[in-house]
Write a structure and sequence with these properties.
- The structure is a single chain.
- By secondary structure, the protein is α/β, with parallel strands linked by helices.
- 32% of the residues lie in helices and 16% in strands.
- It has 20 helices and 21 strands.
- A nine-stranded mixed β-sheet has the order 7-6-16-17-18-15-19-13-14, with helices on both faces.
- A hairpin with a 3-residue loop joins strand 6 and strand 7.
- Helix 3 runs parallel beside helix 10 and helix 3 packs across helix 17.
- The longest helix has 20 residues.
- The chain starts with a helix and ends in a 9-residue tail after the last helix.
């Protein structure tokens, strides 16, 4: 299609014709699905019915929406008492799978075994008060209303803070009483408000590039980078500043994942500039999410085996049937092996974004002989993948740490000079226990592309009342800073703090004193933190339940599930639910990914917001399309479609 033709088509799709486009696409997909389910495929066999609407797919699951099945308790699967489960790792996905085994599969807790290489649960969802380094948070978790599987899980997990409440209750009340939003999204010139003012700053050409990506088929984006689909019209916009710093996307990351993100969160385009789309926990992710799950599982009798590194899962593969037969482990007492039968279910977290984290401290950079914490996730996946192509291709994700790393740091301070400067920028007092920055504050002119955030304080239950914990991260770790003339990856905690104080606007003459005497900083370099964003194609991530798998499933950010987006808590919990329901035969629908991408109201609304309030119908079209536009709009305005377009500021009086 020519550029002129594409522009005309996109405008018409975003306006009056988008309903028909989506309806036709949905009808076509439904018809194709029906053709696949029948052996005949003849249109003469067609009849209207909802019979078979919720038949399970080849993985043993089906998807649903609404609250009918969300509130239902499934029947106990036959023979579940005779089965056992082994979960590799104790991150969010693995703990969620164990919870679904207890709650929905109704497997006895004593039959469930969690194998963890570390001495603590949680995986990437950490929050540690390290006696030698200080507070450590490698990352944070941004959440939203439509994490359907996550909230399905946490409405059943008792709160550790509020008697008689669930974790979801506690979270819901907190974010109702103290809603999240930012009062300063970005700074420049050492702490001055960059006045992004909620605008995306996209040109018409940049808007069309995003719209074109939105409508591109997955297959056409395999192994392509974002640079392959965008140019400076997008990369030079405030939209890209918001996007890359919020989601940690780099220009060389997956165009397919970029598209998935855009479609998944299309209903939140308006909340992107000020983070009003987001919700956060009261404390760090370990204390607010992981600990309640661990206590729930321990109360159910689930066994945690810490200090147990799984080095391989051996499969027997015959005639397309894949059966896990043994789990090879390494413990402090030496190597051991757990034999498996078809009744022994194995849930494998393959890959890890925080694998091989290098820890520094206030006076040491995370380099050289710094401590490295490894659980062997990548080597485990490589050994499993070597046994069958359906187990994925880990090398696509873990082979180029120059493109998958970034660094974060936790700064703790009680200094009034620093806190006063924080107040000036975020326009809130960080010691109130309420929302502070509302999300990251990005230093737009930072050579490191440094961002920082302060969540509700204290972020740790045992944190002193006058202390403030700040999370700092940079996307560019290999370039010299603006104040500290070294790459971030070579900097001590003190030096990272100094660079942050410089961009905070602290007087230069005070930076050395404050960074050295009034702050403590723990840096963490993560070589694989954005490994899941690397360009990929079909089959690079294994299906949650690979075709032919009898007793094994994959969990977490490197397993494949339709439509959802990685680097989210929802993705981990969704893969866990699918794995348990499929392997155990749980007869309950998995909540589908929120369908805003199929909602014409959200599509129209987001198009206007992406263009900073302009209607796509304001775009000038090539002749003769421009001549036809006004007569067509006059006719449309007399219909219910016209009302829909007016309700979302797409159609305006002056256009008629």
């Amino acid at each position: 299609m020519s550029k002129k033709g594409w522009k005309a088509g996109a405008v018409l799709a975003a306006g009056a014709g988008i309903t028909a486009v989506l309806a036709a696409k949905k009808r076509g997909n439904m018809e194709m699905d029906k053709m696949k389910k029948t052996s005949h495929g003849s249109r003469s066999d067609y009849r209207n019915t909802e019979l078979g609407k919720h038949d399970k797919n080849s993985k043993g699951i089906y998807y649903t929406n609404g609250n009918y099945e969300a509130f239902a308790r499934p029947e106990k699967p036959a023979g579940i008492e005779e089965k056992s489960a082994y979960l590799v790792g104790s991150g969010l996905a693995s703990l969620a799978a164990a919870c679904f085994l207890v709650r929905d599969a109704q497997m006895p807790g004593k039959n469930i075994h969690i194998l963890e290489a570390m001495d603590i649960a949680g995986g990437a969802c950490d929050g540690i008060d390290d006696p030698t380094r200080g507070y450590v948070m490698r990352g944070g978790r941004e959440m939203e209303d439509h994490f359907e599987c996550l909230w399905d899980l946490f409405h059943s997990i008792p709160s550790l803070e509020v008697p008689g409440a669930s974790v979801l209750d506690e979270y819901y009340w907190l974010n109702k009483h103290d809603p999240n939003y930012s009062l300063c999204r970005a700074t420049e010139r050492r702490g001055e408000d960059a006045h992004t003012d909620g605008k995306f700053g996209l040109s018409q050409k940049g808007s069309m590039e995003i719209m074109k990506l939105f409508f591109t088929k997955d297959e056409d984006l395999y192994d392509k980078t974002i640079e392959d689909v965008f140019d400076d019209e997008v990369f030079g916009s405030q939209f890209w500043l918001y996007w890359r710093t919020m989601f940690a996307f780099e220009n060389w990351h997956s165009a397919l994942e970029m598209k998935r993100y855009f479609q998944r969160f299309i209903h939140h385009i308006g909340g992107l500039p000020d983070f009003s789309a987001l919700k956060f926990t009261r404390y760090n992710q370990y204390e607010s999410l992981i600990l309640p799950m661990q206590k729930y599982l321990e109360a159910a009798g689930v066994e945690f085996r810490f200090g147990t590194e799984v080095t391989n899962v051996r499969f027997e593969i015959t005639d397309g049937k894949k059966t896990a037969r043994a789990i090879e482990c390494r413990t402090k007492n030496g190597d051991t092996e757990i034999p498996l039968t078809e009744r022994d279910l194995v849930f494998i977290t393959n890959g890890s974004c925080t694998e091989g984290t290098i820890y520094g401290d206030q006076n040491h950079a995370p380099v050289g002989d710094a401590e490295v914490r490894s659980s062997g996730c990548w080597s485990l996946w490589k050994k499993i993948a070597a046994q069958d192509p359906s187990f994925g291709h880990p090398e696509k994700f873990c082979s180029d740490i120059e493109k998958t790393n970034w660094e974060s740091a936790t700064v703790t301070t009680a200094n009034e000079e620093i806190i006063d400067q924080i107040k000036k920028i975020c326009k809130r007092d960080p010691r109130t226990g309420k929302v502070v920055t509302g999300g990251i504050v990005s230093c737009r002119d930072s050579k490191w592309l440094l961002s920082w955030t302060i969540n509700r304080q204290g972020q740790f239950k045992n944190q002193k009342k006058d202390e403030v914990c700040v999370w700092v991260y940079s996307l560019f770790t290999d370039v010299p800073g603006d104040y500290v003339k070294k790459p971030m990856k070579e900097c001590t905690g003190k030096e990272i703090t100094a660079e942050w104080l410089y961009h905070l606007g602290i007087p230069v003459e005070d930076i050395e004193r404050l960074s050295g005497e009034e702050c403590n900083c723990t840096p963490t370099m993560m070589p694989y933190i954005t490994a899941f964003f690397m360009p990929r194609s079909a089959g690079d991530r294994p299906d949650v339940i690979p075709d032919g798998s009898v007793n094994a499933a994959f969990l977490g950010q490197f397993a494949e599930t339709p439509r959802d987006t990685i680097f989210t808590t929802e993705y981990s919990v969704r893969t866990a639910m699918e794995a348990v329901y499929g392997l155990c035969g749980v007869d309950r629908g998995v909540p589908e990914v929120w369908g805003s991408v199929y909602d014409v109201r959200e599509l129209l609304d987001s198009t206007v917001k992406l263009m900073d309030g302009k209607s796509p119908l304001e775009m000038k079209l090539p002749m003769p399309f421009e001549m036809l536009k006004k007569p067509l709009l006059r006719k449309i305005d007399k219909t219910i479609v016209g009302k829909l377009l007016r309700d979302h500021d797409v159609l305006k009086d002056w256009m008629l």
